[in-house]
């Protein structure tokens, strides 16, 4: 399959293709020559339901499924909806992979999450450490639901020889991200907070935690390219990190965003709110070795593009 893989000839189904990452992935696949891409809309197919999955497979008749669809959010959303995040992501993923195997779909690309890693994973996170502890509590239900796709992928390869792969992207950011304060992740949430505080003349902003945790971020365009490369070139069930290799503390991140958005007020840390996982940075050598992926976008450059996009499109 490696040598013969040609996007121009493939029927591809991208769940979550209308979302943030999905939009970039589809643009990238079209650049690679893909013409036959099916994007199931949530209004037409509730992928938590088995009959909707079967209908989608019948309608799209795919040779490759890239499963991006997920019920996601930041720490706040994870704390408010742990049961929904667990159930929706588990049922969607497990049933979809099973039905894809039964339907005869050639290849299944499962997108996991960095939240699947144990809370105290040695840094940088190696894929070999994925099972050495329980995930950070605030997003464990989501992380574990997604991690079951890895177990399933390996079990189906062992028993049925089914070609499915499992990728672990780190936190994404970039133009087009979700800036809703209730559900957004840290970068868009901070950009919005700083810009609104500056415009309203506020002298401070409140930030969750104490600023000590570190995070790694990958520009969404780089992540889309990594997923496409894996779909093209990688055919094993070992999990693979998709990251940038760049780690920054939340304190440094907030100060950087404040500076880049022109907010010069005080930063007030609300230590009654959770920090989340203490550190997050990935070992990205496996992706490089197995399918030649490395991220290219400089963090400041990606951040500036994200800020510019928000200023232009927020209304």
Supply database-style keywords.
globular, single chain, 315 residues, Rossmann fold, three-stranded mixed β-sheet, alpha/beta, 11 strands, 10 helices
Proportion in β-strands: 15-25%
Might you state the CATH topology name of the domain at 7-173 and 216-247 and 280-297?
Answer: Rossmann fold
Provide the gyration radius in Å.
19 Å
Tertiary shape: globular
Spans of at least 5 consecutive residues with low confidence: none
- H/E topology pattern: EHEHEHHEHEEHEEHEEHEHH
Helix content: 40-55%
Number of strands: 11
CATH class of the domain at 7-173 and 216-247 and 280-297: Alpha Beta
Q: Would you kindly provide a written description of the structure presented here, covering whatever features stand out?
A:
By secondary structure, this protein is α/β, with parallel strands linked by helices. Strand 4 (107-111), helix 5 and strand 5 form a beta-alpha-beta unit. The mean pLDDT is 94. It is globular, with a radius of gyration of 19 Å. The strands form three sheets. Strands 2-1-3-4-5-9 form a six-stranded parallel beta sheet, sandwiched between helices. Helix 2 (50-60) crosses helix 4 and helix 6 crosses helix 8. 43% of the residues lie in helices and 15% in strands.
